[in-house]
Amino acid sequence: MSAPIVSLEPLTSTTTFDKLRPLAKSGGCASSSCGVSGKPDNVDPAVWGKIKDHPCFSEEAHHYFARMHVAVAPACNIQCNYCNRKYDCANESRPGVVSEKLTPDQALRKVIAVANEVPQLSVLGIAGPGDACYDWKKTKTTFEYVRKEIPDLKLCISTNGLALPDHVPELADMDVEHVTITINMVDPQVGAKIYPWIFFDQRRYTGIEAARILHERQMLGLEMLSARGILTKINSVMIPRVNDDHLIEVNKWVKERGAFLHNVMPLISDPAHGTHYGLSGQRGPNAMEMKALQDRLEGGAQLMRHCRQCRADAVGLLGEDRGQEFTLDRISGDVTYDANKREAYREVVAHERRDHVAAKSQAIGQVKAADSRKPLLFAVATRGGSRINEHFGHAEEFHVYEASSRGIGFVGHRKVELYCLGGWAEKATLGGVIAALEGIDIVLCAKIGNCPKDQLAEAGIRAIDAYSHDYIETAISALYTAEFGVQPLAATA
Ligand code: CLF
Ligand code: SF4
Known about the structure:
Elements: H1 45-51, E1 66-69, E2 78-79, H2 104-117, E3 121-126, H3 136-149, E4 154-159, H4 168-173, E5 178-182, H5 188-191, E6 197-200, E7 203-206, H6 207-227, E8 231-238, H7 246-256, E9 261-266, H8 276-280, H9 287-297, E10 303-304, E11 315-317, H10 340-369, E12 376-380, E13 397-404, E14 407-415, E15 420-421, E16 424-425, H11 427-436, E17 442-444, H12 450-458, E18 462-464, H13 472-483
Parallel strand pairs: 1-3, 3-4, 4-5, 5-8, 8-9, 9-10, 12-17, 17-18
Antiparallel strand pairs: 1-11, 2-6, 6-7, 12-13, 13-14, 15-16
Helix pairs in contact: 2-3, 10-13
The protein binds FE(8)-S(7) cluster (CLF) and iron/sulfur cluster.
């Protein structure tokens, strides 16, 4: 087992930057410029330079880096059947009202305030709550303001694609390296079931004609971005019996046109949100249906599996939302950017990542060597840093990994209700937690009590807290190889 070389406690919202200290067992120099970057072997160096700090474009980076969204773009030019304008854009956020819409000036103040307090911050995204390309003036002005004050912050937008081709040259000029297009269909017949209308060229279109125009603009936008070397992620909402099988075709089309990642997200359909799908009884997929589709997509465009469908005003690591700490009424007076915390954090993370990459590579090698075709699913309670560092009762989500003869892969996450509230176990929620862990073989957490452990065992799930604060892959490797009678090799620090 690999010992922590740094304390990554600040990867939670409740801990402070002061706890970011290298521990005695440091494996090398403290500088991130010593040539060891933590780059995975299978990633091109030029691409790695663009994604290594982007929590959405790199699964590995999402353990360390945070994004923030500013809700400066409320207007939208299409209607999706999974969206109610009163709620966040479902392209990039779970439904829930945006706390406050911002002007570009207000957005700049908020970005500076967050950058001063959240050292993990690496990306500023504009993901609505409408469409970032349709509400272009505010998107562009915000990016220009922020670029001047915090030049190293990555800029990122999410769009439905209809207005995208009009702005690709400006995105390239502004050095926006990451764009997301939500593409739910490549067949207008399917599209007509998802989009009742679009507004394009001063006209409203409906039905198949609307879907055809949207499709053509999305493909054109993607091709223009690829031609300029801008990394493009495709988000697709999986809508059972509407486009689930069709997403295989979508995956092929976007791969052919140079998409960097394909992120399939489950439809969120709740009648309380007032969406067409919610009110008409269209259901979303369950966790196992999502996994089955993602497994079918393997081998096509590279998949993103760690999306959290975050709000259009989200702040923090993926999976946490610190937006309420940075509402405008809490940002008083002049705010001036101070780069110190972010720079210091990056140095510590460079250390940790290098150690993690080595430990992970060794763990994956051991699992492959176990030579078993039987996969095991692990649900891990973590607060980040690629470590098992969350108590079972404090977990609001579990990260799911699959170990098999192919190695160890991140599969997704399962959201759960908190089992432990205010120091007391909520027995009533345990049934829901266990249901959310359907199909899981082993739960890994920093600590678990006997009561939930026994109930998990009754449901056929083993809960283990013996690997507290170890790297996730190291623990999985030890358990997987033990399961199949292969002794793990000695770990390196
Ligand atoms: Fe925001 Fe989107 Fe940029 Fe990320 S989110 S604009 S690419 S910085 Fe990320 Fe959130 Fe999923 Fe989006 S987890 S919803 S994929
Ligand atoms: Fe809603 Fe976003 Fe669709 Fe516009 S693009 S209708 S804001 S989900």
